[in-house]
Design goal:
The complex is a heterotrimer of chains A (about 200), B (about 90) and C (about 260). Chain A is mostly beta strands and about 200 residues long. Chain A contains 2 helices and 11 strands. In chain A, the strands form 2 sheets. In chain A, strands 1, 4, 5, 8, 9 and 10 form a 6-stranded mixed β-sheet that branches. Chain A is globular and about 60 Å long. In chain B, strands 1-4-5-6-7 form a 5-stranded antiparallel β-sheet, with no helix packed on it. A 3-stranded antiparallel β-sheet of chain B has the order 3-2-8, with no helix packed on it. With about 90 residues, chain B is mainly beta. In chain C, strands 4-3-6-1-2-5 form a 6-stranded antiparallel β-sheet. Classes of the chains: A mainly beta (about 200), B mainly beta (about 90), C alpha/beta (about 260). The complex binds flavin-adenine dinucleotide and zinc ion. Zinc ion binds next to loops of chain B.
Amino acid sequence: MAGIVSPGFFGRRRDASPRLPPGQYLVRDFPVLSAGPTPRVNLDTWEFRIATETGEKRTWDWPAFQALPADDVTVDLHCVTKWSKLATSWRGVSVDTLLDGIETDAEYALVHAFGGYTTNLPLADLRGGKAWVAYGYDGADLTPEHGGPARLLVPHLYLWKSAKWVRGIDLRRTDERGFWEQLGYHNYGDPWLEQRYSAD
Amino acid sequence: MSVPLDGNAIAGALGELFAVDVSVARLECGGCGMEGVVAEVVVYIDAPGVVARCRACDNVLFRLVRAPDRAWLDLRGVAYLRLRTTST
Amino acid sequence: MARAAVLRGLSWRVATVVGVRDETAAGRTIVFELPGWPGHAAGQHVDVRLTAPDGYSTQRSYSIASAPGGDLVELTVERLPDGEVSPYLTQVLSVGDQIELRGPIGGWFVWDDASPDPVLLIAGGSGVVPLAAMVRARFAVGSSAPFRLLYSVRDPASLLFGAELDHYQRTDLSFGVHLAFTRTAPADVPRPVGRIDAAFLTDATAGGPFSAPDAPAVFACGPTGFVEAVANLVVAAGHEARRIKTERFGPSGSQR
Ligand SMILES: Cc1cc2nc3c(=O)[nH]c(=O)nc-3n(C[C@H](O)[C@H](O)[C@H](O)COP(=O)(O)OP(=O)(O)OC[C@H]3O[C@@H](n4cnc5c(N)ncnc54)[C@H](O)[C@@H]3O)c2cc1C
Ligand SMILES: [Zn+2]
């Protein structure tokens, strides 16, 4: 239910752009959303893990992860809370690289983060050059408030899918809903189709 | 901003859903067993929804998501809620 | 406590501005008329919802500054230079304008005006607002509960309700105010500039039933960092956690 218009109120500056999905506003700053205390992750004990549906595991420590070939990408971000930020530049490892050589029949992925956060998506959405585990933002190390040391980056879906402080991905035969998907948010979250909330 | 507020700050959002003031209800954390009051839990509002956590163990107590025409409330981190009723 | 038993959820009401009063360079009191207001208790807050012409909408919480009673509700808002809502409320909103508001909210952070227990109030910046409502309620109902307010503020020019608080403390010996200036202090204050610390707490709670053995009801309010620091000090001074109630305003409800 929309409220009455408040005389003279415009709110924080919002711009329009043809590159914006429906219902989104453009921001210039980089808002920080958080659902808990910011995890302080020690690089000496940091580990990234992919586990398949058969229980097979592959892990990387920080030096091994840094040694993987990395991409520099520039992408638009769309947050379900309605702000979008265009042309953000990141450095990270393509999830294709991480999955290379892993035997799996899984169709789904459940992403885990330090601090307990989870999010789910079809494995196909992590493949094909569409997703990264990013550790650099705007030419510098990714800061803790934006998900450092490393976060998932899946820019074609709403930003809650791009789990901050990512620690691993479970490859699954069945879909399991993540932290926000359990509670009203859309299971897939395509910003161009404005898939904010689940249907029921 | 990961600067939390108190449960008291979301009493308005809860008050929209319930006829009684849930913010004064007592609760027990399903994670560590600590007892407390809804008004005193740790609350994060700068997220796609409201996330309330236990002050002792950080366990997620409850979550609230508000769509324009619906609300979801997940209480799975709470062992119990005790509300005061007005006897008639 | 004047609390109406309304057996339905809270909903948005239209509030009309009937007065504004500048308190300091950044702080303004806005007086709203709310027909059918069910009454409130000192310490409660309201949610304010603003909507722009393009449908963009946002909401914030503000404590009620005025004592319970009547159809008028006063909010005192301190402007944050780069804030989204507080500059609008303190600089744009004018008499005759209408906004949406819901309340009264929260039955926990409230002073029970029937209680004779001593009350220790600790405020940082605009965190003084709900505590001032408790002080106003105390004088309005003629309570003789001993009250003491410890108020941390940047400088003398940022002091909210200074003259009124001073008047109260001159007319009633069981009410007292102790100020901590964090940036600039007036020339006649002997204490150096600084935050509320253990020594300040000891001094400011002396000479009345405000120390741990007296078990006063403690209310602490202000920016999240301030409230965290003060709650730790009060617990370290021996007060029982169950006697301490807190209200965190967020990252910068205002600078101290
Ligand atoms: C229960 C309760 C009662 C309160 N009572 C009062 C009261 O009586 N009086 C009072 O003055 N205040 C009170 N507050 C605080 C009030 O709700 C607001 O938080 C305050 O007015 C600031 O709002 P704003 O929109 O002006 O600032 P905001 O726009 O919310 O900004 C606050 C700060 O965060 C920064 N910030 C916010 N968003 C971003 C972003 N996207 N990117 C980068 N930085 C950002 C801003 O730069 C600014 O420094 C209360 C809060 C609570 C929870
Ligand atoms: Zn707990």
